[in-house]
Amino acid sequence: MSVANSQPYEVIQYNIEHLKDLFVKKAGSFPHVVSNKSHLRFFDEYFKKLNTQTIVVENNYVDRDFLEDFTGYYARCFEDYKRKCVRLHFFNIVFTTEFFDSILSGICEKDADKKLQSAYLGFIVVKPLPQTIIGRTCLKTYPPEGRRIFPSLRKYEVNLFGINLYLDSLAFQEQDKVVAACATSALWSAFHGTGKFFHHHIPSPVEITKLANTFPEEGNTRSLPSEGLTCAQMAYAIQRISLEPFLINIKDLNIMKTNVYAYLKLGIPLVMGIVLYDVSQKPHKPLGKHAVTITGYNLDSTILPSESYSFLKASRINKIYVHDDQVGPFARMVFDGKKVSSIDEINEEKFTEVDSLDTSWGAGIRAIPEILLAPLYHKIRIPFNAVRDMIRSFDLFIESLRELELVVLSRRLEWDIYLTTVSEFKKSIFTSNDVVSDYRKDVLSSDMPRFIWRATALNSENKKVLDLLFDATDIEQGAFFLRAVEYDRDFALKLRTLSGLLNKEEMFNKLKIEPVWKFLGWFAKKHEENSVL
Amino acid sequence: MDNSKDMILINKFTVEIKNRLNEEIQKATKFAKEEKSRLEKASKIDPKILHEPFTI
Question: Contacts of residue B55 in chain A, CB cutoff 8 Å?
């Protein structure tokens, strides 16, 4: 049982032992339980990296998510569980109880609250449960350093006894093994991203588990306590909050990287289903299926991508960051090229070598990615692979022109393909000098749908050559190519002229039924119209 | 439009270049179709996976 909290707040110097003591005391847990939690090891490393100095303990905190879970399950237990939580706030400056007292009393130095804001690192809600104590957790990410990218972050506003604090994060919490297993926690984090972006209600863990379990699965007779959700149940929960579940097989790691990049860059957190393996002994032992939320990625400019994907920027991903409810928020998973011996799907007596990722579970535990589940707004209809296939056709055509020296490019174009919105796209044009004067006006005033697939071609100097824009709200059989935006004037002139010439030559009539003609036809028309460039 | 650059490219577009470009386009189209079909196959979901629970 958690200990009653008589004083409203405490200020404590941060170190991992103090954090451990707080977890034990505030949750009413046991030291050996907290010591054995992998989260504690994770937070130790994480808070060191963030240079954490001080904790402000907000006793008697009412957390909406836990309150929902409490009324949905714990309130009806015979045991007397508490409904109030404790919230721990972390700061990267040293201060004392007296300093914090002076802020609340209004006798502090000027702008002291601003000082607190700039030092704010986020919070952890401690749930009053015996074991699964890590509740809603919003922490700052590691600094980007030009390679770590977290598109799924949203702004969280925090009110600490009247002091306004905020941070960019994505909520995380540990599964409680009662109202939520890993799949529920993964969906809950994803909904924190999509809820803000697509404006839907963010259900609590117990609500998610109940929604998912209205889809009956054979052999699974009760929803609570939850023993886990299937992929079909997760998809059903997504539908029940009026989003569309988009499911992708990601056993091929390049398919995984390119899809993760394409959807996550818009800010949509993705749920990933993995199979965990213990590889500390032979044969490698499967531990079971686990679900995590993908929140960010790391791009490595030195990576040499595999041949068939060399044209996609996404193939430079060398790490992803996930909310893994058994480890912690923004936990690393690394593409290190190592494989796992997995039981062959056809002949179960055989083993096959399968691509895998290093995890933050500790040495010897690896993951084989299985499925990716993207909760999409219903108007996002054109999938990434439709755009990727069209870009491949166009890229190969440009390669043919390059081989014959009809265009000048020092190396193959690299394509940055991702989902975006019309507002984001136009903002990027408006705030840059990539295109100017009448051409810029023409691009900015063009009619465009709310969701757009943007494919940017980059040259060897990482400079934009052109954009190809697609209507993500169209149907695949429709002409979903919207227009190009030409940045490299010389390249564009050549492409326009060549497209115009190909249009007139009978020899190339067959080309006009190929997908690539959707683009070349546009450039040919621009050539014919002698349109502004 | 820059007519001088336009003319340079038009002059470069000889019968030999046209034939070679046609060949290159045929090859590229075939490769693009093969890749599309390979990736479609690799992305296909095994229906069995849909009903296996995530329990860890």
Answer: 181-182, 227-228, 288-290
